[in-house]
Specification:
701 residues; 21 strands; alpha+beta
Length: 701
Amino acid sequence: MDDRERKPYVHRLWGLSIVVVLVFSILGFNLWRLQIAQGSYYSAMAKGNVMQLVKVQPTRGDIVDRNGKLLVTSVPEFALNLDWMDLQQSKISNWKDVVQRLAGYIRPDWPNPNQSVDSIAEDIFANIQNHQWERYRPVTILNNVPPDLQAIIAEHQEELPGVSVDAIPVRSYPQKTLGGQFLGYVREIGDKEIAQFNQNADAQKAGFEYAQGDLVGKDGVEKSYDFWLRGKEGVQQVEVDNNARPVSKQVIQAPEAGKTVQLTIDADLQKTVEDSLDQVIANVQKNTNPNAKSGAAVVIDVNTGKVLAMASRPGMDPNDLIGNISQAVSDKYFTDKTAPAASLNRALTGLYPPGSVFKMVTAMASLQLKVTTPDERIRDVLSSLGNLASQQQGFPEWGGNDFGLVNLYRALALSSDIYFEVIGRRVFEANPETIGQIAHEFGLGVESGIDLPGEAKGIAPSAEWKKAYFGPTYEKSRDAKLAAIESKYAPLLAQAQDAKSKQKLQTKKDAEKNDVAVWYKQKTSENVDWKVYDSYNNAIGQGYNTYTPLQLANYVATLVNGGKHYRPYVVDKLLDPITGKVTQQYQPKVLNTVSVSPDILDTVKKGMAAVTTGEGTANFMSIDMPEFTGGAKTGTAQIGSKDTISGEIYNGVFVAFAPYDHPQIAFAGVVEFGSHGGDTAGKVAEAAFMKYFGWKSSKGG
């Protein structure tokens, strides 16, 4: 090949060499710029990337009754989410356009149908802004996405990067209002609740800490056993840059489902009690008092403390409290604007005067102090209370009755007020603290320690209690009056012209202080010191006595099981959600054994049996249920004080146990505005006993 033929190839080779040199020069320059000239800058940028550990929520555990019947579960619900990572890594230039298009698609299913597309988009922007502190988490835009919207999102997926419809577990209560209050509900944790939940002993032992955004139980079993129900959260590792933008993500620990919680509750018995309570309240509304809307009932195993049924009315459907709730729903469950607040578990937190069902405590105290005997007979007339002054502080026999001569058994059977006023006064005069002490031993006026939140304590009154409760109010008022006198006279005395003027001022000051002392003595005598009418009132379950239906049921259980006061509980065991094996078994716990002797317990138990037979106020128990053996006590509890408007309004209260030999269950019920307990709460007890024991009604039911 001659030079002329070789020349073009030489030119091409030189050209290619120049290009290669140029490319490598550019690469070398950039490498120098990145690693040397700007190396510290990019090193700092890389160090700004951090790893965030994000919780992956597990499926919340089921709640079942003692027989395995499903009461609470988690079901898949489709949620519309916006994932910032996917959106920012897409090819879309303006993410706001994605949000605007999304708003247009979801408008027909948006909770507020009157909002425009632009307004919906603004709401979405606000939601995004609220989650700026965790931009690596998907933001939920809409819950419970209907199938037609799911199809639309799928069809336009290419123009909606980062938008997805995901199945998430949502709490479901398939039995609706059945046991709604003791089951509770689930919502996002409040800022003020985080510290409270982090005090949970099981959570602390496991090293788990609650945080903002967690879904937690808000009441009932859902709250008490939240740590076990919530399961073990998974962990997703997300790398974010120094602008909090996600770069990559990876699941490093899969979540574990929560435990299955098995209750002591019998769902079928629970339904029977609730249905009967509904019917009784409806009857009272129709025939006696239209204001009757509330009530509660408890059935408890007397030998273990297991709660078999716990009903509260008005009923609560926890499904109503999932997700966004309207003002009407909020009013229904949490305020008394239109009706009694339905979220209140009246069996656990409702405090009621017990009325005559308290008389067994007075009976036990009188026998223990030996101020009477079971066979002593007292004439059932007002004069038995003593002189005229004593009679004026007491109460005449209910219904204007005169039961003649009554002993302890007949007094319980007929619910004689006069009898218990007489022996009650004797008890308080012998030892003013005995009735309160015995009440406490049987679980009245003390927290039971049940494994549910929100238990009310109640009051078992005594002379010392009254002094401690009312005394400080008058002491504070007295001290304020005396301080005002000192402030008034201090400058006047300092400016007095002579000894005579000063003495005159001092005399006036002393007179005013003496007036305060007289006022204080009068007020404490009237409102702090224990009076004869206090003895009468409290001996028959009125006055300051207030207890929960749960306490009343446990009090009867303690009385008939030989004096063992058990801690009531509603959760029997925890089960592995996969294998069904028991991982935690809860056992009965005796809180105390009462000081009342077995002989006295048997005597009072015999008196309760007399209530359900012959002339007893609950003889309908034996008439309606021929198979029934056991005992009961009726109560007609006055809501207000004597000679007031509410003094003529009564709650119906009823307690019972069965069978008589080797008792198994105890019952306590209250129907607000229900008047006589036998006619109202007593009918709920009948339904409960027939269901539990399989007894038949003489009426063919």
